[in-house]
């Protein structure tokens, strides 16, 4: 299973590639993006190395790492990703703070959900209990919060 490009009404989702690292480092540069997930803004070199690892995948025949950057017009604004195992796709999304509040995360995640469901995959996500924006995206995608907690995040099915 490999990530292929697809589009939504306003966005193009492009399979991850190392050449996006420089622009994406700017998109991901706001420390506020890491309030719920931890970590800090990556450098260009660290992001390029991460992208190379993500593209290489986990090296297990029953697991796939699928990653896309989100393009609005001529600029990259964030990413969506999915880890696929045993018929289940765990999804995640990040939109840079400069582009938040315009429905891009919802639109990109709905497009991702449609792409994954076309592959006959069940969707899940893990979301911090206080991250209301991500909870709204998960709800829009058709997921519901469970009481299961893992690393301080609720499982959504």
Description:
- The chain is an alpha+beta fold and 157 residues long.
- It has one domain: Aminopeptidase (3-Layer(aba) Sandwich), CATH 3.40.630.30.
- The protein is 28% helix and 33% strand.
- A hairpin with a 2-residue loop joins strand 7 and strand 8 (153-156).
- Helix 1 packs across helix 2 and helix 3 packs parallel to helix 4 (132-141).
- The longest helix is centred in the C-terminal third of the chain and has 14 residues, at 104-117.
- The two termini are 22 Å apart.
Task: Looking at this protein, list some descriptive labels.
157 residues, alpha+beta, Aminopeptidase, 8-stranded mixed beta sheet, 4 helices, 28% helix, globular
Compile the SSE list and pairings:
Elements: E1 6-7, E2 11-15, H1 21-27, H2 44-56, E3 63-72, E4 75-85, E5 88-95, H3 104-117, E6 122-127, H4 132-141, E7 145-150, E8 153-156
Parallel strand pairs: 5-6
Antiparallel strand pairs: 1-2, 2-3, 3-4, 4-5, 6-8, 7-8
Shape: globular
Q: What is the strand content?
A: 25-35%
Q: Which structural class fits the helix and strand makeup?
A: alpha+beta
When the domains are counted, the total is 1
List segments where confidence is low: pLDDT < 50 over at least 5 consecutive residues.
none
> Could you give me the name of the CATH homologous superfamily?
Gcn5-related N-acetyltransferase (GNAT)
What is the name of the CATH architecture?
A: 3-Layer(aba) Sandwich
Number of helices: 4
User: What does the average pLDDT come to?
Assistant: 97
The N- and C-terminal alpha carbons lie at a distance of: 22 Å
Q: In which order are the strands of the major sheet placed?
A: 1-2-3-4-5-6-8-7
CATH topology: Aminopeptidase
Under CATH at level 1, the class stands as Alpha Beta
Total beta-strand segments: 8
* SSE run: EEHHEEEHEHEE
Largest sheet: 8 strands, mixed
């Amino acid at each position: 299973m490999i990530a292929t490009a697809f589009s939504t009404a306003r966005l193009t989702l492009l399979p991850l590639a190392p050449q996006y690292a420089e622009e994406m480092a700017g998109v991901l540069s706001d420390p506020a993006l890491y309030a719920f997930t931890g970590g800090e803004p990556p450098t260009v070199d660290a992001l390029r190395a991460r992208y190379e690892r993500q593209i290489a995948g986990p090296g297990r025949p029953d697991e796939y790492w699928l990653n896309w950057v989100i393009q609005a017009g001529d600029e990259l604004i964030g990413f969506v990703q999915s880890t696929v195992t045993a018929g289940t796709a765990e999804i995640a999304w990040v939109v840079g703070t400069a582009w938040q509040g315009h429905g891009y995360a919802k639109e990109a995640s709905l497009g991702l959900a449609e792409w994954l469901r076309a592959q006959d995959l069940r969707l899940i996500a893990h979301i911090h209990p206080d991250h209301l924006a991500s909870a709204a995206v998960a709800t829009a995608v058709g997921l519901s919060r469970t009481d299961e907690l893992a690393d301080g995040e609720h499982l959504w099915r």
